Amino acid sequence: MRAAVLRDGRMVYRDDVPEPTPGPGQVLVAVTACGICGSDLHFASQGEQVLAATQAMSGSPSARASVDLGADIFMGHEFSATVLDAGPGTDTFAPGTPVTSIPVLLANKGIEPIVYSNTTVGGYAEKMLLSAPLLMPIPNGLDPRHAALTEPMAVGLHAVNKSGITPEETALVLGCGPIGMAIVAALRTAGVEDIVAADYSPIRRELATAMGAHRTFDPAQGSPFDSVTPKVIFEAVGVPGIIDDVLRRAPVRSRLVVAGVCMQPDTVHPFFGVAKEISVQFVLAYEPAEFAASLRAIAEGRIDVAPLITGEVGLDGVGRAFDELADPDRHCKILVTP
């Protein structure tokens, strides 16, 4: 079987990966499309730091050992697929049914996230295993390439839901990468009447407008806080210094939602947040209901993800795509289509 795997920090093409066999409750699927996520880029370049941070957070000695960076690593968690076969005694959708799923595999040894693994194949492959109870059929007529973006759209919806924003409150989205775009789309779907997006890239500012932003700002021309008085700020940049800068500039009693993943140590001045009574909410992933809601929103046309797809590659082009995604003016979301 063909697949793209992470090896020594680079994505490489393989044509000799054993085809996975579904066990009870599992389904073998053919991958239709898989989006390249920013977290995959981070893991490729900072895998040791990601594993070390996970170990420190959980306090488990096995956290670092769960992935061997010296062996090939399977990735790809934003996918759509077609049902091929089911494991023993498993009731599921008929072969040929287009599906997507929360990226989790239920197995005898427990729950296996489909994120980074030496053994569990992800969406950068011809075929993979999914859990029958978690499958969601893709509605008739929905482009499976668009359905593959359900996962990142759910991340944006979760951030908006956690913010508690109301339609009359002004939202400021800092960073117009895929997650920032997903937040903008979720805000627009929620009926927020003033959505402001800021990014250095003119291409991404244009995309933010296409996804529903009412106004955009170039931070190189001055802080958006000089012209906007947001009630809710969404941080989707993930670099050191951003949170502290927001605390310093944000209005009194505003709310900060941190969706950007910063892997480096950061420094904040609590005084800024205390003096202005700013609420800070960190967010991660989504609830199953939010994943389902995002798929419906895409299928019903309330969220148009087509503008986000700026490139497609085969499995032999994944390494090149990882390199190209480092330039924000070249791409937003590249799909892998095996």
TrEMBL record:
The keyword Oxidoreductase applies. Gene3D superfamilies: Medium-chain alcohol dehydrogenases, catalytic domain, NAD(P)-binding Rossmann-like Domain. It comes from the Bacteria. Residues 23-139 form the Alcohol dehydrogenase-like N-terminal domain. The keyword Transmembrane helix does not apply. One of its GO terms (molecular function) is oxidoreductase activity. Pfam families: ADH_N, ADH_zinc_N. Keywords: Oxidoreductase. InterPro entries: ADH-like_C, ADH-like_N, GroES-like_sf, NAD(P)-bd_dom_sf. Residues 178-299 form the Alcohol dehydrogenase-like C-terminal domain. This is Alcohol dehydrogenase. It comes from Mycolicibacter kumamotonensis.
